Amino acid sequence: MINIPKGTKDVLPGQAYKWRYIEDAAREVARVFNLSEIRTPTFEHTELFKRGVGETTDVVNKEMYTFEDKGGRSMTLKPEGTAGAARLFIENGLMSSPMPVKTFYITPAFRYERPQAGRLREFHQFGIEVFGSPSFETDAEVILAASSFLDRLGVSTKLELNSIGCRVCRAEYNKALKNYFAANIDCMCETCRSRLEKNPLRILDCKEEGCKKFIKDAPLITDYLCGECAEHFEGVKSLLTAQGVEFTVNPRIVRGLDYYSKTVFEFVSDEIGAQGTVCGGGRYDGLISDLGAAATPAIGFAAGIERLMLLMENTGANFPEEQKPRIYIAGMDAQTRGAAFKIAAELREKGISAEIDHMNRSVKAQFKYADKLGAQYVAVIGGNELASGVLTVKNMKDGTQAAVKCGELYSYLK
Ligand code: HAM
User: Which residues contact 169 (CB under 8 A, 6 or more apart)?
Assistant: First the structure.
């Protein structure tokens, strides 16, 4: 027996409708926010993520599924959707379309992490990426789209907001962090030590207990924002407030990926254990130019579908019922089974879901099976029905029966 790889999940019959429900909510949000779907490959050149997501991040350093293809190129299964979306934007010349270019995607993503509740090695994201607008209205709109998506699913989360500044103020902040950590860096883990010179902001991500006590009192980015970044952040906050979106400013949110600038945010829940962030995102004004194209501001987010599912299940969400067969048509012998087959085929052509026997069951067993399937109606075809062309259609819910001409079955069920 070969088992499923660790950190991956099967979606079983009778479960996929829950996924579809979440995906439908995502598509509905995308529709009203006027976002266009994009799809990018499952694997990309490794260099894209190194340059895009950043070489000092855990995602790139420790978690990528990287392999050499038969042509000797280094490829990586996408660990997230933003870098691929940015590549798509650049490579297809979308910068010459009217701005902003508003996109969304639903994609699998792959990270070699230690699996636990809400943390998988293959997971799925609903993401939004909006390219070309520097204005704070766009930040507020993207956050509102995330909030509207979560509301539609009926999940309750808390929105935490921060600004991590632009390259100018971040340089000052990095200097302050370097000064602050330098005193204790020898007592900190190896990853923190290597980050001190390369990217001190990433030290704030460290989960090692021994490092956390030093991180706790580190300087806060909010004290280092330049005038423009502070003003931008105020703009986002005031639009959200005016819109009635509740949030708290958490100056400790720095996000785990290097491309962010200015606004960053997370929607968190304490109902699903340690991995409580169901949705995260932010502005990434430097990514497009880091990938070699003309500087283009952008902002987006991604919500983890498995985490949402977990949250919905833990909080007793009402998923709609999975669709059941509208009618089960039972035959008795070779001839009537043939008629059942034909009627079912005709109904399906017209869009009515119909089921028949595949297992040579007795009529009694077919009734039982139809009930198990949740069929709303059952019709039995015997010799009399065949001769008269009139079927007795039983409503399985209330037990009532009706005589329906074969030719009128469709309109009866419609
Ligand atoms: P992220 O915070 O790395 O951001 O991931 C976004 C969401 O994906 C998380 O909040 C979580 O729900 C889900 N997620 C991440 N890792 C796992 C995992 N191992 N197992 C299950 N779910 C997971 C990004 O990926 C950015 N690309 C978001 C973004 C888009 N920023 C700007 N645009």
Answer: 221, 224, 225, 226, 229
Atom of ligand 1 nearest to the CA of 300: 33
Q: Whose CA is nearest to atom 11 of ligand 1?
A: 304
Q: Whose CA is nearest to atom 14 of ligand 1?
A: 304
Q: For ligand 1, what atom is nearest to the CA of residue 267?
A: 10
Structure confidence by residue, pLDDT tens digits, 327-374: 999 999 999 999 999 999 999 999 999 999 999 999 999 999 999 999
129 lines ligand 1 (CB under 6 A): yes
| Residue 22 near residue 30, CB atoms below 8 Å | no
Q: Is the CB of 120 under 6 A from ligand 1?
A: yes
Whats the size of the chain, residue-wise? Answer: 414
Is the pLDDT score of 124 beyond 90?
A: yes
Q: pLDDT tens across 31-68, in order?
A: 999 999 999 999 999 999 999 999 989 999 999 999 99
Whether the CB of 81 sits within 6 Å of ligand 1:
yes
Q: Does residue 279's CB lie within 6 angstroms of at least one atom of ligand 1?
A: yes
d(CA 236, CA 141): 9
What is the enclosing helix (H) or strand (E) of 156? Answer: none
Q: How far is CA 203 from CA 23, 177, 211, 223, 407, in A?
A: 35, 9, 9, 18, 72
Instruction: Choose the residue to mutate in 307, 308, 312 for probing ligand 1, maximizing ligand atoms within 8 Å of C-beta.
Output: 307
The packing angle between helices 167-182 and 190-198, to 10°, is: 140
Candidate of 275, 305, 309, 312 to mutate for ligand 1, largest count of ligand atoms within 8 Å of Cβ? 275
pTM of the model: 0.94
Angstrom distances, CA of residue 249 to CA of 155, 209, 234: 21, 24, 11
